[in-house]
From TrEMBL:
Topological category with respect to the lipid bilayer: Multi-pass membrane protein
Keyword Transmembrane helix belongs to the record: yes
InterPro entries linked: MFS (IPR011701), MFS_dom (IPR020846), MFS_Na/Anion_cotransporter (IPR050382), MFS_trans_sf (IPR036259)
Gene Ontology MF terms: transmembrane transporter activity
Protein location: Cell membrane
Principal location class: membrane
A Pfam family assignment: MFS_1
Lineage of origin: Bacteria, Bacillati, Bacillota, Bacilli, Bacillales
Segments passing through the bilayer: 20-37, 49-71, 91-115, 151-170, 176-194
Residue ranges annotated for the Major facilitator superfamily (MFS) profile domain, each copy included: 24-195
Name of protein: Galactarate/glucarate transporter in (Proton symport)
Length: 195
């Protein structure tokens, strides 16, 4: 049986809260921001994708919804995976996989390829919020958990608010493929902190 004080799961060394919890909270904030940047990137690139790949509005709608299908379907299994393998390992793999497939969307030449990428991204992102909750519960005393949850949740909106103009600039200056490459690269950089 796994020792509960083992340091492989973002577990604090002692029961007394340490300052390390704030470093972890900042990391959760940025990973949550990246999570939402990756989700939004397809919306930003959508008109260009539609023109480039000759995708009808109906099929583009299917591409948008593909993420939600696997994301929703994997919430409970994702939680079970977290319980079995721990937050650090699961979150690290999850962030790495969703970032790779965010970047791989840049090479889409067909509806099917793009659709498949969106399915995998939804699948890979599914453990993110259960992991955030688990990490906050592990690292923060009860009296600080609402604050910690508020901080990482703010990452969703900060990611969208600050990244959307940047991604539009990338789209305008380069093309829609660069939007996915830059978004995916950002996630890959942060996945280093979880490995």
């Amino acid at each position: 049986m796994k020792n509960e004080t083992e340091l492989t799961d973002f577990s604090p060394i002692r029961n007394k809260p340490t300052r390390a919890r704030y470093v972890i909270l900042v990391l959760l904030f940025f990973i949550t921001a990246i999570n939402y940047i990756d989700r939004a990137s397809v919306s930003i690139a959508a008109p260009s994708i539609q023109t480039s790949l000759h995708i009808s509005p109906a099929l583009l709608g299917v591409v948008f919804s593909a993420f939600s299908w696997t994301y929703t379907g994997m919430q409970i299994p994702g939680g079970l995976i977290l319980d079995k393998f721990g937050s650090k390992r699961t979150y690290g793999i999850s962030l790495f996989v969703w970032s790779v497939f965010t970047g791989v969307q840049a090479f889409a030449a067909s509806f099917g390829f793009l659709f498949g990428c969106r399915l995998i991204i939804g699948l890979a992102e599914s453990p993110a919020f259960p992991a955030n909750n688990r990490i906050v519960t592990t690292w923060f005393p009860r009296r600080e958990r609402a604050f910690a949850t508020g901080v990482y949740t703010a990452g969703e909106y900060v990611g969208l608010a600050f990244a959307t103009p940047v991604l539009f600039w990338i789209l305008t200056a380069f093309d829609w493929r660069a939007v996915f490459i830059s978004s995916g690269a950002l996630g890959l950089i942060f996945s280093i902190f979880l490995v």
